[in-house]
Every structure is written in C-alpha cells, then in structure tokens.
Amino acid sequence: MKKRSKIEIYIDILTILSHRGLSKITHIMYDSNTNCAVLKGNLTYMIKQGLVEKKYVGQERIAYCITPKGTSILSAFKELRQVLPIVEETSHQVSTII
Questions:
Q1: What does pTM read for this prediction?
Q2: For a Cys-Cys bond, which of 15, 34, 35, 82 suits 39, CB 3.0-4.6 Å?
Q3: pLDDT tens column, 29-70
Q4: Which CATH class is domain 6-83?
C-alpha cells in the first residue's frame, strides 16, 4: 500500500466531511483509514486553518464539519487535479540472473 502525503489525508478528510456532513471522529477515522492520534492532530491543524469546525452535539458529544473555506479549498483541489492529473511513478527494477 502506498503511503499518503499530508495533503492527501487532508483532502480525504475534507471529502468525507463534505459528503457526510456533521461527523463524529470515529466515523471520520474509519472512512479516512487514519489512526485516532494522527486524525486528532490533522483535525486540530485543519481547525486552526479554518477548514474544519468543531461542534458540540448534545452535552458532551463532539462532531466535526467542513467550513465554507474548507469547501472552497476542496473544490480548488479537485479543479487542479483535473487540469494537472497526478501520475503515479512506477519503479522498474531490472532483475539479473546469476
């Protein structure tokens, strides 16, 4: 499996929040295939950047949602991806017979 870059993880989180709406951390964690500690760090960063908002649901439940700025960044990234398709490099190994 290929390791994702931070930007790819951020885009995955924004995409999940744009489709699911208000979501608990557990749902985001499973959908983004990210461990809890890493996800919490990413969400904290994204909140500071104004891309995600933390909301309290009920008395103690915390959920997250995408902000208008997050939606704007997500759509800009999708546009960029269409204009400049990301091509994955494949490594060709030459095998020698001894």
A1: 0.79
A2: 34
A3: 999 999 999 999 999 999 999 999 999 988 889 999 999 999
A4: mainly alpha
Query: Coil, helix or strand for 27?
Result: helix
Question: What residue spans define the domains of the chain?
Answer: 6-83
**How far does Cα 27 stand from its chain's mean position?**
13
DSSP tag of 12: H
Geometric angle at alpha carbon 97, from 94 and 98, rounded to 5°: 130
What residue has token string 């996800």? 39
Two structure tokens written together for 57? 């649901």
Place of tokens 């008395």: 59
Which parts of 1-98 are beta strand (E)?
52-57, 61-66
